Amino acid sequence: MHYLAPSPTEVTIVTALTVGGVVLALVLLAVLAMSHRSGRGTAAGPAGRPARGLVFLATAGAVALFFGARVEFVDPGRDDIVTLFEMHGTAMPVYWLAYSVNSGLLVLLTGVLIRYRHTLRRVAGPPALLAAAQMNALMITLYLKLDHLDAQLVAQRLPGVQPGPAAGDAALSSMTKIGWGLAVLGVATLTLVVVLVLAGPHELRVATWITAGLALLAAPVMPDSSFWGLRDDGAVEHVAYTGFEIGGPALWWAPVLLLVAALLCAIPVLPARVRGAAILFVAATPVWLILINVLSYDTLDARLAELLRADGFDVAAQSMGVPPYLFMVAVLIAAPVVAVRSWRAASKGSSARSSRRASATPSR
Length: 364
What we know:
Layout: H1 8-40, H2 52-68, E1 74-75, H3 94-115, H4 121-157, E2 175-176, H5 178-199, H6 203-218, E3 221-230, E4 236-242, H7 243-246, H8 253-266, H9 272-283, H10 285-295, H11 297-310, E5 315-318, H12 322-360
Antiparallel strand pairs: 1-2, 3-4, 3-5
């Protein structure tokens, strides 16, 4: 595991950032709590029952974080699958420690934020957001480390592969495993909870913007269309293909996601007759994306090999390609939820307007 183990420089930097981030979050929490207490005179208690949706999301995120560090995390070149702790080898497990400390702090602050969201949102919110930023930075750092490892391993192994019928050989690449997926899911879910609580009455609007942004990020590249390719001069380069280059049913990938993003932002201002159709289309996003993937299966196999050879790659290995999967799954889950929430909000708004008109009409 020498190629996965952190260097002394990494150990120093990650340790300093972890300790500094935790101390800063706790100091910020203490300062805001003292300011709130002096402004109110007494400490505020919980107001009302926590929202079930937020509690469910926070619980799911905490469970995902717990198991993310305990199951298979990465497969470096498909020869030695390791957990987050084991990837350190004999070096100090600094990434595992940073993950454990920051995830524990994030779960704790998120729970406090949900419990006291009506009264202490401005006290627990900023420290929770800081803890979420710390965890996101850690996951991005780990991804960049694994992506660098992927490039190194492929550069070493790809020149020894003989060209075959298929241009891609995924067995050469470094692959993330279920632990990585659970860790990213947990961090993203708890970050979303913190952002939604801080958004307060603008929760639905913020969720809509986030989902539309994810749809835009998912539009350019389909999953399984990113490769490391070997040129004749021995150079290894990264290449990714869009749905427009692949053709066939894959052509619909980007337009559908762009339409989903546009409709999500337009639903609040659309006329009532059009709004229903737009909500149904967005709610059916999983159907459209799964259908495009299924119909594109045969086209992907044939076209990707042709595209790789046309670009001068006789041998290629599928790259880690995690972001396209993450964006796709996030849109699959978030788009229907936001669509249903938008429909409920529109229905409540229509009912409220009808009630106001009825009460304003003088009785005879």
